[in-house]
Write a structure and sequence with these properties.
One of its GO terms (biological process) is methylation. By secondary structure, the chain is α/β, with parallel strands linked by helices. The chain contains 27 helices and 21 strands. Helix content is about 45%, strand content about 10%.
Length: about 775
């Protein structure tokens, strides 16, 4: 029985690509050095899958930034501002689109469906000129072939590419991105022709937008696109891959009728209804079903017995020789290799499988279907499943009772937001257009070294506290000198906002090398939520009080909200996600109340990932938003009116959930805005009334580019055209930890100067 992997992590087991990218960006190494690291990683990945017995091994899933940007490069769809003059797209143009440069901003970045991975959004219009400008797909196929590995080249499908794009600035709203299909398909044909000439026998088109709610004309675009490609695809086996959710019935009908397509890939972990469709609606005779039964988005060991049963039921529908065992999606959303976790609790470790182990699981299931079941391997898996179900460390009766008691209340604060803002202003006495930052300041090498040495017990707790205190003092002084109004302590004690809290909550486990790519070179190490969650001790109060004692200005207490902790963790799959979220909310509620008791007057509870967790199907939105927003309100429902509650959100499309954001009932929300061409403001232009404080970001922190005072002032004036002066805050898009002080200082100075300039203009206009 054949086996297939949708995609694989690209950063490397020790984040080799991350460090190579950052060295290249800092001009400490050459393009040749970067390419050598990348080639070594690709070779290692292909060899690993080949030796594991995987038949359908993907290529062209390796990327220096993301697969959508790679497709933009392939199509030569470079916005004019990058001054690209044609030819093969090089590193300078590619990374300028991703990160911006000294003269022009980066393209918009947003979340990849409902994951914490990001992609660079293509900017297209009727004037966009397309050309075959990156031969990466073909060169990587040839590279693998030279190593003796015949791969399945993977391309982002043409229709999904357009549906994931946006109209370029200045393009009429009525412009249909799908009208560009005829312009990009000739390039897809060129790529396919080169792959065929190189010897490819299979090709994979990723069309994940098929799991979304699509209109009839969007479904028709799939039919017309693949009909146009059919003659070019002749002689190739063609797999169309979907993932992350169920494929709706109409989309399933369209997909299984596409011309020239040999095989269909489905996520049968998050798409259990698709399984019913295959069985009830029928499956095309003679076609292959790539059954995604091994979860590509979580780190729990597969229940092999259950997956084998599912596969056996599918065999009866599609035929033994047409069923291929696969992952539910790319494994890039999980950690690389459990072998590297030498310090992880052995019982918990037995419950887990990272990407390398999932490759083995896929192959083991394929062999079992073919009558070559590894009885010892299956028995060990069954024992681990039983151990997890019966382990006393998973369940905490007291926590479960407290979460169950939440039902019956909406946990709103007793007074309106306008009354609270009045009470807070009397206490805080902030100027018009108050300035603040989002939380973190640059994480220097020295700071990382101090944390590392403290964790390794190479320095004492006293030395660690002294070093962190010195860093906080430096950050406070910088903000005071810049004349920022509401300060942060810079989070020097935290490597990662979710990991930091998870380390201090019960029910969490931590890996040493469980890194997952978020965007570009940015990697995160999600905690593992294996059991019921509670807060044994205060987590941030010591540092927040220390920082507040250093300044007369308001100091924000900085917390991560329950929905973001949930969505940025590997979450237990043995109970509904909302139950785990309510448990986390109760833990954060205790921390909020302790911060308030400690004299912290402004508390920020970040919900950066609230939009990210929104289900891909509209029919499921209301239920998710109800429990997610409720979880946030639980955290702060008990504070006084004079305590100002902030929240922060970033890098998603928030316009469609603005009413749920209002329903969170925060006093102030800071929200990403500048990198997405200020599309957030369109909501307010269209008549949505927002009465709480709001700080749409005035500059993009994910780019090294430093904005001018005039540029920021112009952004603020655009905000004032749709928002009241007395509710507007001035702040960056996001936290500053990924930037250098040489970038942060002039950017924040420009931000503060812009706020002061407009305050003066407002005062003189009275």
């Amino acid at each position: 029985m054949a086996s297939h992997i949708v995609g694989y992590p690209r950063m490397g087991p020790k984040r080799e690509l991350k460090f190579a990218l950052e060295s290249f960006w800092d001009k400490k190494s050459s393009a040749e050095d970067l390419e050598k690291v990348a080639a070594d990683l690709r070779a290692s990945i292909w060899k690993q899958m080949s030796e594991a017995g995987i038949k359908y091994i993907p290529s062209n899933t390796f990327s220096y930034y993301d697969q959508v940007l790679d497709t933009t490069a392939m199509l030569g769809a470079v916005p004019d501002r990058y001054s690209w003059t044609g030819g093969e797209i090089g590193h300078d143009t590619y990374f300028s689109m991703a990160r911006g440069n000294a003269t022009v901003p980066a393209m918009e970045m947003t979340k990849w469906f409902d994951t914490n991975y990001h992609f660079i959004v293509p900017e297209l219009g009727p004037q966009t000129k397309f050309s075959y400008a990156s031969h990466k797909a073909v060169s990587e196929y040839k590279e693998a072939k030279a190593l003796g590995v015949d791969t399945v080249p993977v391309l982002v499908g043409p229709v999904s590419y357009l549906l994931l794009s946006k109209a370029a600035k200045g393009v009429e709203k009525s412009f249909s991105l799908l009208s560009l299909l005829g312009s990009i398909l000739p390039i897809y044909k060129e790529v396919v022709a080169e792959l065929k000439a190189a010897g490819a026998s299979w090709i994979q088109f990723d069309e994940p937008t098929l799991v979304k709610d699509l209109a009839a004309h969007e479904l028709a675009a799939f039919s017309s696109a693949y009909a146009e490609l059919e003659s070019s695809l002749s002689g190739l086996n063609v797999l169309v891959e979907t993932y992350f959710a169920d494929v709706p019935a109409e989309s399933y009908k369209t997909l299984t009728s596409l011309c020239g397509v040999t095989a269909y890939g489905f996520d049968l972990v998050r798409g259990t209804k698709t399984l019913d469709l295959v069985k009830s609606a029928g499956f095309p005779s003679g076609k292959y079903l790539f059954a995604g039964v091994v979860d590509g988005r979580n780190i729990w060991a597969d229940d092999l017995a259950a997956s084998l049963s599912t596969l056996q039921s599918l065999e009866a529908v599609v035929g033994k020789d047409k069923l291929v065992v696969s992952t539910s999606c790319s494994l890039m959303h999980t950690a690389v290799d459990l072998v590297n976790e030498t310090k992880l609790d052995s019982e918990i470790k037995s419950w887990l499988a990272f990407a390398a182990q999932k490759v083995v699981e896929v192959n083991a299931l394929g062999k079992a279907l073919a009558g070559q079941k590894d009885e010892a391997y299956f028995a060990a898996n069954a024992a681990a499943q039983a151990s997890r179900k019966s382990s006393p460390r998973v369940n905490n009766e007291e926590v479960q009772k407290a979460a169950a008691a939440l039902k019956g209340s909406d946990h709103r604060r007793a007074t309106t937001v306008s009354a609270r803002l009045d009470a807070q202003q009397k206490k805080l006495n902030l100027p018009v257009l108050p300035t603040t930052t989002i939380g973190s300041f640059p994480q220097t090498m020295d700071l990382r070294r101090v944390r590392r040495e403290y964790k390794a017990k190479k320095i004492s707790e006293e030395a660690y506290v002294s070093a962190i205190k010195e860093e906080i003092s430096k950050v406070v002084k910088i903000q005071e000198e810049l004349d920022i109004d509401v300060l942060v302590h810079g989070e020097p004690e935290r490597n990662d906002m979710v990991e930091y809290f998870g380390e201090q909550l019960s029910g969490f486990a931590f890996t040493a090398n469980g890194w997952v790519q978020s965007y570009g070179s940015r990697c995160v190490k999600p905690p593992v939520i294996y059991g019921d969650v509670s807060r044994p001790n205060p987590m941030t109060v010591f540092w927040s009080k220390m920082a507040q004692d250093m300044t007369p200005r308001p100091m924000k207490g900085m917390l991560t909200g329950p929905v973001t902790i949930l969505n940025w963790s590997f979450v237990r799959n043995d109970q509904p996600r909302f139950e785990t979220c309510y448990q986390i909310a109760l833990a954060i509620k205790k921390e909020v109340e302790d911060l308030e008791a400690g004299g912290i007057q402004v508390i920020q509870i970040d919900e950066a990932a609230l939009r990210e967790g929104l289900p891909l199907r509209k029919s499921e939105h209301a239920f998710y938003l109800d429990w997610a927003v409720h979880s946030f309100r639980i955290t702060n429902c008990g504070v006084q009116d004079t305590t100002q509650i902030h929240t922060h959100m970033c890098y998603s499309n928030f316009n469609d959930i603005i009413h749920s954001i209002i329903n969170m009932d925060a006093d102030v929300i800071t929200i990403e805005n500048s990198r997405s061409d200020e599309k957030l403001l369109s909501v307010f232009r269209e008549g949505v009334t927002y009465g709480a404080g709001i700080g749409p970001g005035v500059y993009d922190i994910h780019s090294p580019r430093i904005p001018s005072t005039e540029e920021i002032a112009d952004r603020v004036n655009k905000m004032l055209a749709v928002l009241d002066t007395n509710i507007l805050w001035v702040n960056p898009d996001c936290g500053l930890k990924t930037r250098k002080y040489a970038e942060v200082m002039p950017a924040l100075k420009a931000m503060v100067d812009a706020a002061k300039l407009i305050r003066t203009q407002l005062a003189s206009a009275k």
